[in-house]
Amino acid sequence: MVTLTIDDKQVAVEKDTTIYDAAKKAGVVIPILCHDKKLKPFGACRMCLVEVEQMKGRLIPACTTPVTEGMIVRTSTPPVNKARKLVLELLLVHHPLDCPVCDKGGDCELQNLAYDYKINTNRLTDEKFHHEIDYNNPLIERDQNRCILCGKCVRICDEIVSRGALTFINRGIKTKIGTEFDGPLSCEFCGSCVSVCPVGALLPRPFKFKSRIWALTKKTSVCGYCGTGCNVTLGVKDNKVLTTVYDENQGFHNGQLCVRGRFGYQFINSEKRLKTPLIRKNDQLVEATWDEALSLVAQRLKGAGSAAAALATPRMTNEELFLLKQLMTVQVGSQNIDHSAGYGHSAVSEGLAKSLGVAASSATILDIQKSDLILAIKTDVYETHPVVGFEINMAVKNKGVALQIISDKKGKLSRLPGANLLLNKPTTEVVLLNAVAKVMIDENLTITSATPELASALNEFTPEKAALVTGVTADEIKSLARAYAAADKAVILFTAGLSYPGADAQLAHAAANLAILGGKLGKEGSGILALQEKNNSQGAIDVGFVPGQGGLDALRILEGSATGTIKTLLIAGENPVVSYPAKAKIQKALDSVEFLVVADLFLTETAQLADVVLPVCSYAEKVGTFTATDRRVQRINPAIPPVGQSRSEFKVYSELISMLGGQPVATPAEAFAQIPAYSDIKYNELAEGGTFSSITLQPVQIVPKANMVVSDSGNYVLLTGAALYHCGTMSLYGEGTLAVSSEAYVEVSRADAVKLKINDGDQVKLTSTDGVIELKARVSPRMVDGVFFAPYHFADASINTIWSGSTVTSVTVAK
Amino acid sequence: MPNPITPIMQGMKITFGHLFKKPVTLMYPEERPKVSERYRGLHALKVSHDKAKCVACYLCPTVCPAKCITVEAGEDENHNKFAAKYEIDMLRCIFCGYCVEACPVDALKMTGQFELANYRREDFVFSKERLLEKK
Ligand code: SF4
Ligand code: SF4
Ligand code: SF4
Ligand code: SF4
Ligand code: SF4
Ligand code: FES
Fold it and tell me: What is the ipTM of this complex?
């Protein structure tokens, strides 16, 4: 500890603390422009100058100077104030001073400081800048005339986002922040740069001129897209969510969001939201009252027993899923309930459940930066969970955590410094992991020794044989095994969800085996983290929204609907027509089922086939809890009242339970109290940031099944997955996310593009045994020859036309 | 004790004095008052280069104590900010003039127009068109 005096206040701080942080601790505010608590000290603006007794004769920047014992610091003496005034005057010489039309007004650090230091006139004059303003980008408006060259955008894009899309270009007075070759900004659109810009040089275009920041009511919530569970602040005016507001102190992620969370909020107040219930009459969906719609549904469900089934989206709250489960299992008497097409949650609900003795990940997102080694299975981890990706970036770049990747394609993660990528043939991940386990056993690198069953089952997975199957050399496999075993703490990450059928129970077993053998369970910075797709995927598993005893899983429910054993099907928020595999089958099933009820925000492709459509609320309109993929249980509160006549699903299913003679719980808090997985969490005590549900690990070594066959059909294979800009099919209703990624595409390697004479942007025709689809080609350096990749979100050319749920689909390609 | 008549006489003197002064009352509406320069009547949005000067900065709705100004900004073809909607609810306005004072671009003034009576509530809500300064 170092003791020093700041403005006559004594403080004791850690060694290596800067004067700025020490002052903050002492409750003394030093003005800053270029400093940010998330970024490395930079010292560009000189706003934070202070006087230090021991360094008389010059002024010292507080944000970059470490404290020393006995330092005497004065933060607002006349010379300091005079210097700061000059700094501001110099900045304002070129600043356009267009506060009345600048959206940053009221939230602008330059404006605030000019006010605080009473800069009413300027002793200096010069011509203003005439930089061209980028009005064309759909998400980020860049006006370099307002820029004060603090470099925060450049640094956050590099240090946290690791994209490097912005940089200083030119020199001296001509310096500005530019993009690659000064062209249009093309990046991840995470908006991190916008959020830290102290002035109005970078602004969110979708919010342009919509409101003043001070007129917004700020409501905190939890992002309704992926399983990361980021906390967001919604800016609300006149009952409309107009923007997301940055708060550097929010959540474990310090306000960092991805493009979906930051710019994809428009679905909440979309014009396309369903406003009233709809009932099919004469083959037309016509508007109806809630009473009509609900009594029709209740009538159909009454006594339906196992002829009824429900599919729910893990975007619903825990309490809603709890009620829907109660409705189906108790009142209706059917065990046919499921979510995420059944296989989408199997890695956790079946794989980890057996391997770890608990249907949940053992590690949390917080473990990533505390680890020594990260083993990521598929580079897609970044695209599906970008804010987890930021954690990986920071771990690798700032904390020196080693990054090992097993993937069937390259990606953003594999470009991180020091990342070691093992490029495997598609579908061979389990073989590869088994071979790694085998090496660990053979070389005596295990901490927990392998059971005889596992050891003998792994016998065939020698690195040499596995090399033939996976395309990764035996040496690479061995060195991965050694690195993993040698790391004191290691986390294994993989993405699970609808478009990743390969992330199944076997993969989870194989990953868990590594952790068990390597002794990487149950300690900080170690474990397994399955990154599940939706905001409440883990909650759906915790609530037990899976087939009960003798019940059908999602795909069987749809089969049953086609054959007539399921007569009434309730689909809550899922959009199987687009997101489940085998479109033709799904459509047939939904066409033939006698009675289809869909509860959704929009008239989705699935809702269009329904007999009754119930308009329900988005996450911004309801109360309840979401459980993030790392078991973090967080509460949401309404930011706006329900849109139109929409109702929260809690209300809808409560009412249906009553109509069927049951006694629903009165409040979400009561429902929460009845969920066994959360028995040790008190609903009312859940603060912002939530609480992790506790788990007890009972690791078991399970033999993962994997085929040791060398597959080389010579055909092209298609992989499905998720794109960075989207999450499920809901982000298609967010104008922001849609603006940067609006149409379906297929990624093709450069060599394949040459071979097939495909140019970037060409329409290509992919044919599988299931059907034909035309997609726009994207020639991408990250793809491996012979492998195509297509994201699954887009309804217009939905990939399930040719994809029937297998991990890879063999396709032929024509232009 | 002073003479009780004296105060009465003094009062009468003032009263009679006024009989011979110019009357302050007007034969309204035939006769019109001349309002002072700084009178705070109905607002007007100033016009320059055939456009309202207002840049929709939202300062007047922010400062207005009666919360009776509604501004909605729009983006014109040159990406400039303008008031797509500008409304003042004169039923709620307390004629304090803060809005005029707050305006950073001198786009707003208060006129001598004081005849604001109307038959319907809606007519008290002055739209941008009605508020634009008449030349
Ligand atoms: S939006 Fe994100 S990726 Fe794009 S420049 Fe800004 S920080 Fe970088
Ligand atoms: S654009 Fe903003 S964040 Fe970037 S250097 Fe300029 S003022 Fe700083
Ligand atoms: S989509 Fe996921 S990563 Fe992005 S902001 Fe939302 S929760 Fe965070
Ligand atoms: S005069 Fe006062 S009350 Fe009336 S609109 Fe202006 S600020 Fe509001
Ligand atoms: S303060 Fe002036 S420029 Fe701003 S909105 Fe009001 S009238 Fe328009
Ligand atoms: S804040 Fe210290 S130099 Fe900018």
Answer: 0.84
